[in-house]
């Protein structure tokens, strides 16, 4: 058991106009990855804020992290990226592709900031209002 600690930095009143099921799937995938690649006892931070009429949400961990080469393969259907987690968990590599598709459908963007051994931060933005 990893005994991870969530750190929620979400304003009490932040309206977001999005398909509920798609948003749940995005969070499930990003959280699953953060858990998979985190070391025991670490903190996973979920942050949400309004920036320039867009909601910016990030999920960050202090886990394995990724190389620039791996980052460049993410979100691409023709590149298979699936590395074992810190407890040898397995995945299909399709979760992030699904996240990107759902975020694209909301006219949003997703990207990652990461370094090997320092963890990863997945960030996505979607417009605050229906468009």
Give the arrangement of secondary structure elements.
Blueprint: E1 5-9, H1 20-37, E2 43-51, E3 54-60, H2 68-73, H3 95-105, E4 109-115, E5 119-127
Parallel strand pairs: 1-2
Antiparallel strand pairs: 2-3, 3-5, 4-5
Helix pairs in contact: 1-3
Description:
A hairpin with a 3-residue loop joins strand 4 (109-115) and strand 5. Helix 1 (20-37) runs antiparallel to helix 3. By secondary structure, this protein is of the alpha+beta class. The protein is globular. Strands 1-2-3-5-4 form a five-stranded mixed sheet. The chain is built from three helices and five strands.
| CATH topology term | Heat Shock Protein 90
Low-pLDDT ranges:
none
CATH architecture: 2-Layer Sandwich
As a percent range, the share of strand residues is: 25-35%
Tally the structural domains: 1
Taking all residues together, what is the mean pLDDT? 92
Tally of DSSP helical segments = 3
């Amino acid at each position: 058991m990893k005994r991870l600690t969530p750190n929620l930095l979400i304003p009490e009143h932040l309206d977001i106009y999005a398909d509920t099921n798609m948003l749940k799937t995005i969070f499930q995938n990003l959280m699953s990855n953060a858990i998979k690649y985190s070391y025991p006892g670490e903190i996973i931070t979920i942050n949400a804020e309004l920036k320039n009429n867009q909601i910016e949400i990030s999920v960050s961990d202090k886990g394995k992290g990724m190389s620039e080469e791996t980052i460049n393969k993410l979100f691409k259907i023709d590149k298979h990226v699936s590395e074992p987690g810190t407890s040898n968990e397995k995945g299909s590599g399709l979760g992030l592709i699904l996240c990107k598709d759902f975020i694209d459908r909301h006219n949003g963007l997703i990207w990652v900031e990461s370094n090997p051994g320092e963890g990863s931060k997945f960030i996505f933005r979607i417009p605050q209002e229906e468009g």
